[in-house]
Amino acid sequence: MGAPSTAMPRRPQGPRVWLIVAVVALLVLLTGARGLALFYTDYLWFDEVGFSDTWSSLLAAKLVPAAVFTVVFFAAMLTSLVIADRLAPRRRAMGPEDEIVEHYRAYVAPYSGRLRVGVAAFFAFTFGAPVSAQWREWILFRNGVDFGIEDPQFHRDIGFYVFRLPFLEFVAGWLFAALLGVLLVTAVFHYVNGGIRLRSPFQLVTPQVKAHLSVILALMAFAKTAQYWLARFDLNFSARGAVHGASYTEVNAQLPALNFLMVISVAAGLLFVGNIFRRGWVLPVIAVGLWGFISIVVGTIYPAIIQRVQVEPNELAKEQKYIERNIEATRAAWGIDDESVAVESIDYAEDLDAAALDQHGETLDNVRLWDPPLLEESYQNLQALKAFYQFEDLDLDRYTVDGDTVPVLVGVRELNEDGLPSPSWANRHLFYTHGYGAVVAAANAVSAGSAPDFLASGIPSAGEVSVDRPEAYFGERLGGFAIVGAKPDEYQPVDEEGSPSEATTRYEGTGGVKVSGFLRKAALALRFGSWDLMVSGQLTGESRVMYVRDVRDRVVKAAPFLRFDADPYPVVHDGRILWVVDGYTTTSQYPYSQRITPKDLPAGSGLDIEMNYVRNSVKAVVDAYDGSVQIYAIDDDDPILSAYRKAFPEVFTDADEIPEGLREHFRYPEDLFRAQTEQYAKYHVTDATDFYKGSAQWSISPRPGERAAVGGDSSVTTTTVAGDEEVTASSDELITPLYQMLQLPGEDSAEFVLTRPFVPYSRDHSKDNQLAGFLVARSDPGESYGDLIAYRAPDSSDIPSPLKAANQIDATEEISQEFTLLDAAGSTVIRGNVQLLPVGNAIIYVRPVYVRGGSGQGAYPRYKYMAASYGERSVLADSVDAALAMLFGEAPPDGEQPPDGEQPPDGEVPGAVEELLGDAEAEFAAAEESLRAGDWASYGEHIAEAERLVARASRLLATEAAAAAAAPAEVGGSTGQGGTSPTNGAGATAPTG
Q: Given pLDDT bands bounded at 50, 70 and 90, which one contains residue 566?
């Protein structure tokens, strides 16, 4: 009788194991299904916006190169492995490692064919799939054009460096890496086949294997030759010298070294070829050893010696020619050369008087009283009107109001899902689907109560700027998805008669992807991870799903080969809300141009990359109602844009098809201007010697703090001493470019421009109080759009900088006392942007001052004063007119002195104030009657007219007060507004931006 078994009985596999297997399988299935859903719904999205050909072109650009490189690698690897198997020795003397061969032959040899294919396929996918990441380089390689400019070193067209060199370098590098992979895998196969032994009393490597590996090594040597040849052109981007580009060391040491290494690599390749027949180790060792030694000595040590011994002791003399190349290339690549920038001198003189001011009335009338971040708080408190509406951003623009061009601030009342009364699925996706209306306020005026003077406001929208299609389904930072055309109606804050009421609406546009079948519904449900999309009975065959609703994300997805500005801005055009997004073409492959990653860019800017060439070549426009995307090509001279237009013809629309009136709202992009001013601060200097010395360089002016330096509460963090003056600046922050309406020196009328001032460069900030110049970008439509003008101060002048003006305002005793009183009363004094106003041969600085009373959600800044600084004097008054009258006295109209006792503003007599207020009272009464009758549209019209009349009366009163205060004084006006509406003297109301 046998011994009893000690084996444990097998536990039956219960349902738990099968459940785990099922869950894992389901997860794998869902992951793959979601990937397919994303792929399919991306196609639906491109088809919806009319870019289906772009989708297929982008897909082909990613798949075709990857497939080609995968096939090439597969063929090379499989061929090498087949040869390795055929060269395997049939009989070898047994050694300590031959047990491996025996096991391999016993277990794997019957499947060797499939093994070779499997190994080749695995590595082919490993090496080939990442090639899809080179889709942008592949597109430019296939569609590149000439720039018509040659580089000064190799005399090749710039297009070679921008369009061809990056992809050629990738191919050469990939080829070398692929051959190295083939070499290593082939060597492993030779080992398991018995052709290579690491320890053996007999032959370590068979002659056949040596010949085989020599062929691969020869190919690697020739691939390296190609890399050396291409590396010669990369010298044009070297950062070794004083500036970027091929410097003295690159041209006289590195370039000869690369040429020599090309010869050595070819010689090494020939030695490997010779070893095919000799089949020894002497030639490969000589080739590799000589190659490595020369690479170190000639390629690294020799250039370093030249740099240290010849260049550094006499750098200017050696590098002057190359600095000149860098200056010329950088100025051309960044659009700051003589063709793009007109240079004007500032013949500074502090000789302004009241009569001279009258000749620059448009500049003074359009001074910005509001800054966007501060006014945004006012918009949110005064115009959001619903908890689920918000203003993401305000943007400065200009509109024509009563025949005058007025600077305005525009914001869109967007949907805020966090504020919904109930965050149910139906509320988030079916009922609350869109924002409502644009709000427009004058930047150069305030209304009664020191609030914004609105040109379009309220629900329903009323005012001078008409918004006929106020629904905003697409906006800034708007995520998720919305469903329109479902069974339930959508929320609308006005009824069919246009009166404010809890009402509903039906979508009438064509935006969104139709949910017209089970496949689409399932794919969208997987994309968003929303099972309700599948099971909800509220959807019909006509329902549409809107996704990618953030306008910037929308244009990035439509044209991923372009880079886009961080700040889309809304435009009310033809009664519709349109979003405009500036698009750029960039490269880091412009020879000799200085590469930078621009500083001080807002979060999300497409220019936050290292580059040395940029153009604002497109304007993308997204309709807030239907999400349609139009990308207008506005720069036919940009070769990179030309290449992309060849690759994606349906993406771009010609500039001559821009709708009439829309072009008037285009503006020079702020992100581009930030980058250009950073480069221009150095590259306004065109003499190589002066550039090298650095004494003529500028810095962008530091940004003065926004909080008044009183009560110990200030954002000011850096203090330096310049001569006898104390200069205070915010820590390392640069002054923000400002959109302004300015009458530039020598021009007859004001225009919409972007400005940024400079100060002389000083490492210790000791010159931050002196203005060196300022750059202006013109934005008005026409031939002047995009032109840059640099106004340069004489080196000997001592024009105050914005920082000095801000400090001088704070240091003026009467102003400081006023700030202290306001701050001590429980309010917070906030200073706005310092605005530089060129008036004749002088510079005036103005700075709005705001007061935020109390704290909490309902507190928002209100306009309080306008500070003005000229020369060594600073004043504070209720309005721009009053401040200038305190500085200069009142300017008589047309240079003529009016009769005694009369101060007619713009042709109106002071007696008109009473009449204007009487008319306003009548309008308020009419508004009250309309309110009783429930006529909300008429109510809004009467209120708007009454506010305009009050504003005009306030302007007259402010002008009289300025005339009365013409005697020198430092603080003018009362601390309160008394219900009046100070303006700039233009009588126009406009929002800030």
A: very high
